[in-house]
Amino acid sequence: MTQGLAGALRTWRTRRRVSQLELAVRAGTTQRHVSFIESGRSTPGRSMIIRLAESLEVPIRERNELLLAAGFAPAYPQRDLDDPRLAPVRAALDRILHGHLPFPAVIVDRHGDLVSANAGFHLLTRGVAPELLAAPVSVPRVLLHPRGLAPRIVNLDEWAWHIIDRVQAESVRNPSDRLARLASELAGLAPPRPRQLSPQYLGFAVPLHLRTGDRELRLLTTLTHFGTATDVTLAELRLEAFLPADDATSAALTELVTPGHQGRVAGSRHG
């Protein structure tokens, strides 16, 4: 069991490109102790494993796995979002989604699958093939699939690779075979990567230019997560909001989305 922990700890340290000395300083221990743990010569206590995992920014799902590998019980619960104990969280998420209206917003899990969405996102996905909106709904796939939003994205060549790079980076940072497969699938759907990004986007996230009817919406995206969640499910949720990049887009969305109405996208897992 300890050998399993030793190998996993080395893997995470290598992935994060952190030396044994740097990890020791972060975790408040010695390089010698870290070396002994990684070689299997020392068995760390539960609190030390948690400190090392925190120092390496290991996701809490994987922290539980490190604890199990060392023979300890998991430290972080994993509840279904429908669990009655998470009712206050569900209510808070609904308020956040509603508060973003008339601008689109979605909540996704660690794989980019839709958990819930507001009426603004429902507006954007009108006309998307029904099979793409059947649970589980992959939001990146909806955005880039030729039967999804891709034909309406004016700057698809640049924006598609913005999304693909983000999925690939997440699959590297928090390894997931499913995310890696999704990134590969999306790369196969996207136009060739531009040899050079437009000068106005250098150093910035690429905005989304999306046709809706006879209008062109210009949207910026933001990604938010729970910074202090101790439940695995909550820690893996992400809020993605699409915000207007100009006054015309703001006015168009205000007109198109009925004030006070919160719609749901077919296939969402919550609501």
Automatic annotation (TrEMBL):
Any one Gene Ontology molecular-function term assigned to this protein's record: DNA binding
Q: Which Pfam families match?
A: HTH_3, MLTR_LBD
InterPro entries linked to this entry: Cro/C1-type_HTH (IPR001387), Lambda_DNA-bd_dom_sf (IPR010982), MLTR_LBD (IPR041413)
- Which N-terminal residues, if any, form the signal peptide? none
Q: Where is the HTH cro/C1-type domain?
A: 9-63
Q: What is this protein called?
A: XRE family transcriptional regulator
Query: Taxonomy-wise, where does this protein's organism fall, top ranks first?
Result: Bacteria, Bacillati, Actinomycetota, Actinomycetes, Micromonosporales
